[in-house]
Amino acid sequence: MGVYTGLHIVAALAVLWILHARGEPLDKFLHQGWDSGFYLGIARDGYKHSPDYAFFPLFPMLVRGLQAVTGLSFNYAGVLVSVAAGSTAAVGIRYVGERVANARTALILVALWAVVPSAVIQVWAYADGLFTALAAWALYALLRRAWLTAGILTFFAGLTRPTASALIIVVCLAALFTILRRGGRESGEDGENSDASDGCDARESGEARANREARWRPWAGAAIAPLGMLAWILAVGHHFGRLTGYFKMQHDVWSNWFDGGRTTYDNLTSLVDGRGDNPPVVFLLSCATMVAIPFLLVLAYRQRLPWPLLVYSAAVAVLILGSHRQGFVVPREVMPAFPLLLPLAQTLSRSRNRGLIVAMVAIAAMSGWYGWFMPLTYGAP
Length: 381
Hints:
- The chain has 18 helices and two strands.
- The protein is mainly alpha-helical.
- The two termini are 24 Å apart.
């Protein structure tokens, strides 16, 4: 949390200096617009308009609860929830990194996540930090085979962001593989023991009893994981009077649907064939992110990361690169795929402490520009 908070403070000071140099109001970096305006409006007034139903309910519920308890304005309550969620995500990311590599790599992974493009939404009233916190801890639980914990956290993630579908896939696949592996092992053991004498004293060890009692946990985790997202999609469908109401609303209202990557292809080729005349810097940053995602996936595969982290990251990448959406939001939407940063963190972990600290502080200062100021000035994060 010290690494995460310290780098965000450096970025905040950098963007405040930029705003001061431009003569702009210093509180602009706490701007509550774009998606945060919808979240705060839902927290204050509930779901009143069709576009509101694209935003999942957990984050505005937390904001509303905090505002009711503390009496803060909805703006400050939203920022406080995001800061708490981002800090929780940082700790979860640290534990995942340490589980996969070591403590040093884990801290560097936290630092990299704190300075990614669109990092400003980690302290704005956006649900992405909350989703990343739930995803990080769910993946950590999955790596430890804590099935109920993983299922419950994925349930809440499904009430936070549609990206939860990637997490649901991983939890269900991991549970399925475990169930099939246990079934095959038990079948082999039954065949070996079929000729045992009836007079034997078949005492069951404590470990065997524990294993038998734990057989239901993968089933339970896999059953719980999709319920949150399914409940919200059904609730939206009920509101619009059709089962596919959520997806139709996304298509008609927000122009968002899965197109197999055609939009990503058009965005990238527009920079080559001249259609993208004088593109804004934020669009260039988004295109660079699109290009980097496949390379990061290849690096993660070559580093032999645990397959749940690979599948989760690949599923997030497919959802982002394969959807019709505004190109500006790509850096924000890829932010929950923090395992993609692990290969870079492992490489940086071989650096000396002094050089690494200086480099990360410099990157954090630059993050005040490309991660905070640029989205604020030239396009919605």
